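Changelog note: in this version the structure field was regenerated for every chain. One regenerated record is shown below for reference.
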Amino acid sequence: MKLRRGLLIDLEGIDGSGKAVQGERLMSWLQSEGHSVKLYSYPDIKSRFGEILNDFLAGRLRLDERTQLLAFAADIMKDQSAIRKALEGGDVVLLDRYVPSTIAYQCAKGVPLIDALKLMNMLQPMKPDVILWFDIPPEVGIERRAKKKGKRKRDVHDADASLLRKVRANYLKLNNIKWLSRKWVRIDGNRPVKEIGDDIKSAVAPLLK
């Protein structure tokens, strides 16, 4: 089922917040309801920008905070035309992290928030219809990530609770000013998976009408 106008949904949160799991569940639910769904994940490790960012996250490459901001922004902006086309075609587009993540992390490392916002406003990324922010204590995210298996189970941010507390504070600021989307939904990610999923459906369902 194609919507007359597509829907852009951004899932945000620190590593271990559960957004990837809930993103998969949300996609399955939307598809079961007959919607065409596309997923974009950032950083996109299959892209040229993503290769650089993957090396940075793995600790193989050093980038200063402003270069990090530009690299993450470029990785996101490269897909804007494709996302716009999908939305025009009535698709639901899910974003596993987007511009708010870039701001939350790089500003936690020292980039002034006002500078990052000026840059992103200049780039004019598409505005999500809803931003689902999975909020958890950094210590919970660190514990979950330590148990995760896979090639990218850990990165340079994983064990830095002090940094992640600053990231959370930046997410809170963006939520409070409703930056990039008028509809931010804070989701307590430290709960059972099904309970969180039900909250997500409640937030998204009205936007599908």
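Spot check on this record: Residues 7-208 form a domain with the Rossmann fold fold (CATH 3.40.50.300). Residues 161-176 form the longest helix (16 residues).
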